[in-house]
Write a structure and sequence with these properties.
By secondary structure, the chain is mainly α. It is 76% helix and 3% strand. The chain is built from eight helices and three strands. The chain has a three-stranded antiparallel β-sheet with strand order 1-2-3. A hairpin with a 2-residue loop joins strand 1 and strand 2. Helix 2 runs antiparallel to helix 3, helix 3 packs across helix 5 and helix 6 runs antiparallel to helix 7. The two termini are 36 Å apart.
């Protein structure tokens, strides 16, 4: 089966999952979860098959900006889907599945560049990249959960209980999960930076400086937030601002320089 057909089928599956949640998001009985998760799992499997074909080529691993973005999107979608099986995340599912749909559309319509790597020749680099991708996905998920906490808190303050259904988690439970995810992502990001510093010869090279500075700044923000929450009880707006700031710094570090090199410079 061709990659184009697999991508189109993944797009349809994600759209079905998105629509299934949105059509009954505030219904007392909630969305049709069998339909939602069946479509979501189908989309994830198809997305994984597309990624395998795009990433692993006969000439090496193609880690172009589009492929990396698709991989990170897949990791986030998997993480949110699995987490939602244990803790309600009805507000996040249409956002995540909708973005995954847009990513499949991008794969279908945007030109594919080639950025070959040979990770089998550098185990330290492979470990660093795996940790970095997983950390980024987990921390973006923490940011999404912070939005959910803000929404629930806002509705409770307004006494708008009509918007609250049994498919939304209690505020305390949602907040505890948010900070657990945040702590896990911060630890993974710290490990990724440590591995890079210890095992990458060109860690401080000019071409990596932009990524390292922004990634380290993001780590400092997340670590500060974890400390502030544990010691000073930071939460609410303070936690949201710091989470969004850290996520923005990581995004600039992970994708900013590559976007400039692969997209902007190539179009000039």
């Amino acid at each position: 089966m061709s990659t184009v057909l697999l991508t189109a089928l993944a797009l349809i599956a994600y759209l079905v999952a998105t629509g299934s949640v949105l059509l009954r998001i505030f219904h007392p009985s909630g969305p049709h979860f069998k339909t939602t998760f069946s479509a979501a799992v189908a989309g994830l499997v198809l997305h994984m098959l597309v990624l395998t074909d795009m990433l692993f080529t006969s000439g090496g691993q193609n880690f172009s900006l589009l492929n990396v973005s698709s991989l990170v999107c897949w990791l986030i979608t998997v993480a949110v889907t699995l987490t939602s099986l244990r803790s309600p995340a009805i507000l996040l599912l249409p956002v995540v599945y909708g973005f995954a749909s847009l990513m499949q559309l991008a794969v279908l319509t945007l030109p594919h560049s080639v950025q070959l790597q040979h990770f089998e020749q550098n185990l330290g680099l492979l470990v660093h990249i795996l940790l970095a991708f997983i950390a980024y996905a987990v921390l973006i998920m923490a940011m999404l959960y912070s939005f959910q906490v803000s929404y629930i808190s806002s509705k409770l303050k307004q006494k708008d209980f009509a918007a609250m259904t049994r498919h939304m988690p209690p505020l305390v439970q949602a907040e505890i999960l948010q900070f657990r995810i945040l702590l896990a992502g911060t630890v993974l990001l710290g490990l990724a930076l440590l591995v890079a510093a210890l095992f990458m010869d060109n860690w401080l090279a000019k071409e990596n400086l932009h990524k390292n500075v922004f990634s380290f700044a993001g780590f400092v923000v997340f670590a500060l937030l974890c400390w502030g929450h544990a010691k000073l009880g930071w939460r609410g707006k303070t936690a949201n601002i710091l989470t969004i700031s850290g996520a923005a710094l990581l995004t600039l570090g992970y994708f900013g320089s590559r976007f400039v090199r692969e997209v902007l410079l190539n179009t000039l």
